[in-house]
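Table S2 (continued). Query chain:
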Amino acid sequence: MPLSRPRTPRVHLLYAFILASLAFPRSAAAEKILAEGADWQLYSDGRAGGFVSYVHGDGLPQATYGTDSTGAQVQLHDVRGGGFDALAERQPAGPGGQLSQGTIDSMRVRSGFIGNTLGVGVREQINPTTSVMGYIQIWAFIESESRQKNRPNPADVRQGYAKLQGTWGSILAGRTRALFSRGATDIDVLYGHRYGVGFPGDIDSNGPTLGSIGFGVLGSGFAGGIIYGTPNIGGLQLNVGIFDPIQLQGAAWFRTKWARPEAELTFERPIGQTGGKLVLFANGAYQRVYKSDACTMVLPTDPPCEATAAGFGYGGRFELGPVRLGIAGHYGQGLGLNYALEVSDANIDPVGNLRKFDGYYVQSMFVLGKVDVSAGWGIARVFLNPADNVAVPDPTDPTMMRRIIPHSVIKYQMGESAGVVYHYTPSIHFDVDLFRAEAAWFLGEKQVVYVYNTGMMFTW
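Corresponding output:
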């Protein structure tokens, strides 16, 4: 019997893509001008630091086994989708030496919610109303893959784009942040984990952590795309783009035809004379996927020859005096738990149909001089398809009359966070943050993990 779900390169690529969603809005005040001329500037921005992170809690629930009429051990149901996989101490429990859920105890030195980054950009003023810029951003991790210090940490060129701006709006071409769920991701960055860790993601491997991604926040992610932004009229702005399509892969969803459209509408209005603001947003994405081979539907339960992965997000941010508050939600089909349009067991039922998801997220922060105090809560939920409730004969019943559900599907992931950041200078930030992560499955399994983090970050 398997001790836990196997780790594959796909898992590591999954988390690498999730972590792409953790880009932060760049502040012009933090940039360093490297050189400039009459109508151009060369500048840099970035960050470097590290965090000690300790994870303690329940291991991933194991498959449930029983004994058939011959005395052989047989699987009753497994656990699919979601949860927090890591090396765990497990003890035999129950008949036949079945392993218990076990306990995770893991301490790492991590990159934090946003890894070490180096950005370099060039701005040029073409005429009084038109400018162009090019920007490249490189990310790097500090921890080694799978705790092997001889493994290389290659540089990740996370962004690279050109942007033309004028009174008519803007056009961006290259690799940058996607638009769907951008507003929710910004809330997590700005008010939650910009200088901290949150949930570590792949506990046993490397890379920036997740913050509250996967707990009511879909990471917006990065992709190659072309985006048009309208002029800002009274605080209202629309961004529409087409992006390199995503192949969902599971159950033969390997083929796509068209670039993926995404859009985000934002409204920003200042409050008072002290820098307060109200920001509202709504965004969405649409992606058609297809089977790669000849498609025939024999049974009514067979998945169709093509499917739609799509969703919408909404929310807002409020700032007044020392108070910061962000609220966001999302709903859609084929979205996944962690990032928009995710390839995972949570996303696809046993016969290949896409499941539906929703999520809700609330994040607060209080600015007390040089100290920021934050607290947040979020939940991501999965909705079953009819194929998930198809029962099969119980192999432990000699009459084969009793029936059971063979797969326990993830029901929700819920996270609660708290943190304190001390800004020693505008560029040096010390962080202590906590995270409680909970996962539950439809057949009753549950997992709770606690994360304790502290460290520092230097930004420019």
